[in-house]
Amino acid sequence: MADELPDAPRPTSRRSRGVVAATLFVGLLSLGGWWAGRDLTKGVARPRSTVGGAHLFDQVVAAVTRNYVDSLDATALYDKAVVGMLRELNDPYTMFLAEDRLKRFNEQISGTYAGVGLQMDVRDQWPTVIEAIPGGPSHRAGILAGDRIVKVGTEATKGWSTGEASRALRGPPGSRVALGIERGDQRLSISVQRDTVHLRAVPHVAMLPGAVGYADIKVFGAQTTTELQAAVDSLVKQGARSLVLDLRGNPGGLLEQGVAVSELFLDPGQSIVQLRSRPGGAAQTFTDREQQRWPTLPITVLVDRGSASASEIVAGALQDHDRALVLGTTSFGKGSAQNVYPLVSGGALRLTTARWYTPVGRSINKPPPRNRDDDDADSAGVALPADTIRPRFRTDAGRTVLGGGGITPDVMAGDTTTPMPVQGLARAMGKHLGSYRDALAKQAALLKRSMKSPADPVTPAMLNALYADLQAREVAPDRKVFDTASPWIARSLGYEMTRVAFGADAEFLRRTQDDVVLQRAAALMQGSRSPRDVFARLEQQKAIEVPASP
Asked: How far, in Å, CA of 58 to CA of 74, rounded?
């Protein structure tokens, strides 16, 4: 899903395509340098050790600039050389941030940007509103989910990408942009005054059945701790007797925010994370300085392979001190810290300066892929070794936790593979998956006026109408394939219907009913009256599930 919001910095490996330095350095450092040596010594090659590294580099750049078969700008060569040098460090988190990328990075960390506050995607070739950010300019102007943006200013938007729409909608606070909106059979003209938009770090807060509070943390930006504290206070006032912290898909962010969130749930003096820099450097340990706000509140933390960096700091600290049960699938494994160094030439260098360890000494860093040029390489690193040979550690209460990469949950939950019927549907749709998504959006828009509640069921007639739409688009899969995948199709259509008719918060609540990981966490939390109760209930369940040997 694409939108007007800045792209979240995901911890993925960087693949440099067409980088001249990668190939030229190999040949020219040996061949070009050798020729330069012969010219200066009348036929006697000078030893390479006598040539300073900087001088050698300048010689290579000069030779390439003058003599390479294709004309190359010297400035571009320096840029490519920087990318190649950083790439050779074999660290996917060290990178050069060009000015536009640095701007997006800063927006993600600060949680603010200037624009109209719309989350969008393309539907049937038109930019379409997924959500107007609550409290943002578009929300105040009355723009709704499902609205089609057909004009920005005087320009028609048919065929625009989300990136093109985003750039057109951005602008300085106080400036205005006229939008042509299509809402069903209505045509509207809405003028929106751009403003500073705040992106919520904790977008979903809910009370689940059984007095289980829920808070979804999407990123560790400048306001995360403040937002989370307000969210949990609100849930406790509503009667929450336990809490689920959802860190699934959270790519991390600011180290200090990961530490501050951990402090909300730990006691003074308890360690949170240790940073170890290069050999000989002093380790830096962050410890809790504040009394925890909710000491008797049982907690479960949800993680998956998209949980990284600061997310793993929080999950690891709360797990090591037995403050929270961790549930889900093994996290990403980004156990390193980066500093951002602004450059006088523009942009910045994002450089790994330390690796971090959990309170009991676990390194969560996974090694990088063996071949970073391989498009199929797992961006989360190589596969973890078997649990039987991974290093073992003890929590404060003596429970065993695993090191060697990522945070391994206390309870594994959630299927990491796509169901076979869904895979079959995806193969059958092939390059027409976008048309399938467009058909879902169209049916949801048609059903908007007839929905009576956010939980309205998806009927066979609705699925038949969706299939008929796919047939009209000449992209329908075999009916048997469609019917086999119909339970998952019905879910997707139900979410889309609810969002268009009742908004993103209502869609979220509908999704919780089908979220097996969240439901498992809620079931474990119900009836727990203290943090220790959660672990006791887990042990009771294990005893029931695994009968004693005769």
From this structure: 10
Tokens of 528: 């727990």
User: Tokens in use for 73?
Assistant: 């700008």
Residue 149 DSSP SS3: strand
Q: How far apart are CA 318 and CA 401, in angstroms?
A: 12
List the beta strands (DSSP E) in 229-324: 242-246, 271-276, 284-287, 299-303
Q: Angle of helix 531-545 relative to helix 516-525, nearest 10 degrees?
A: 110
How far is 425 from 442, CA to CA, in rounded Å?
Answer: 19
pTM given for the model:
0.81
Angle 32-40/20-28 helices, nearest 10 degrees?
Answer: 40
* E strands, 294-435, in order: 299-303, 325-328, 336-342, 348-357, 392-394, 400-402, 411-412
**Residues 221-273: pLDDT tens digits?**
999 999 999 999 999 999 999 999 999 999 999 999 999 999 999 999 999 99
Helix ranges restricted to H, 68-158:
74-87, 99-110, 137-141
User: Positive or negative CA dihedral for 473, 148, 506, 226?
Assistant: positive
* Residues marked as catalytic: 309, 320, 334
